[in-house]
Amino acid sequence: MRHYSESALLTDLYELTMLQAYFSRGMDDTAVFEFFVRQLPPGRNFLMAAGLAQVVDYLTELLFDHDDLAWLSASGRFDPEFIASLIDFRFSGDVDALPEGTVFFADEPVIRITAPLREAQFIESRVMNLLHYQTLVASKAARSVIAAQGRQLVDFGLRRAHGAEAAVLSARASYIAGFDGSATTLAAPLFEIPVFGTMAHSFVQAYEYETDAFAAFAQAFPHNATLLIDTYDTEAAAQQVVRLQQWLQEEERDIQLKAVRIDSGDLDALARQVRQILDAGDCGGIGIFASGNLDEYALQALLQNGAPIDGFGVGTRMNTSSDAPYLDCAYKLVEYAGQARRKRSPGKATWPGCKQVFRHYDAHGVMCGDTLALQHDEIKGEALLQPVIRGSMLLTPSSPLSQVRAHARAQIASLPPALRGLDAAPPYPVAVSHTLQQLAQQVDEHQRAMAEADHAHWGADLG
Description:
The chain is an alpha/beta fold. A hairpin with a 2-residue loop joins strand 12 (329-336) and strand 13. The protein folds into 2 domains: 4-137 and 324-457, nicotinate phosphoribosyltransferase, CATH 3.20.140; 146-319, Alpha-Beta Barrel (TIM Barrel). The strands form 4 sheets. It has a 7-stranded antiparallel sheet with strand order 13-12-1-5-3-17-18. The protein has a 6-stranded parallel sheet with strand order 7-6-11-10-9-8. Helix 6 runs parallel beside helix 13 and helix 10 (210-220) crosses helix 11 (234-250). It contains 17 helices and 19 strands.
């Protein structure tokens, strides 16, 4: 049996009930759905798209296997004819999307799906699941990258991640945003992400003498040893590191201590004290790595105060996006059977039709505004949504993460300075084209007319 994450049943039940209802009425004309975020969370000045590669994998591998079909049949919820129709169910449509690492804002489509109605509807839940989480983490991680000012950043989030998939996907999303790597080992074979590891407090506690623990670890990893020094007394441990380094040099051992790690206490004060001890002991080449419930705000405070820290492990607060743990995102029908569609619910109204986002830059290459427009509007600017899949065929393989990271880095660099700050800034300007506004008005007028006729129509032809 396939892993649960590969099953077509990893979806909301209502996707299947709608599919049966569509099937029974023979409704399967071409539909267009768009995924977008209604509004940015408080404190966020931008979002960063991530997760497209996993969406592509999902769409290109989607099928109902024997076990899926057997469960649907045994559930007693669905008609046999409908279940039989799922045997050859595959995604046959088109995908247009923002490249991963692209900065975007409220109401801007991140992905557009064009496919027969049943296909485009069914994939809603898993597509949202994949895009939402990685976008959430990448957007949070990008803020740590900005705050770290070039210091090393390592994802430390596995043990408190919300499940195994979240752990590996947060490693990927944070790497896209600019982290240097992850402590999650599986990120290396899955995504070729550099992985880093230090040592545990239990390793130190297992030895009678702290210095013996340090020496043993250094001998096990002679060219890459980072020693955890806050198990007992951080300053005393730093002194022991100095003595160990001096002994290694006297013995002419081919061992060079890389760094020390502080995981608790007042990181600012302790880093200063440790740096002074290391420097006084002629150990200026040993770096200081800090961890312990860090986020972008803690990084900013530490570095603004001049804390002599060379790198950070950032975990829980980043991969749970603790201050904004979800995005107000949606996947909505914008066209069916060639007719633009629009939801008008209060607070959740959508823009109709197939759309494109055009980005504008000033003379210095700084983003100065976007225009949300219809797909075929002739508007100057960079068209952000790019073709990914046509007729179920992947146009080009997913970009290497090195290329995605470079794109994300360029995106952050092109943000207006105020948006790169951690404080709330005036919203980035996103204009709505005149043609899109006109279309919305036309759709509204048509819907009102249909609503007036609905009472007379109801019951006339439900058979």
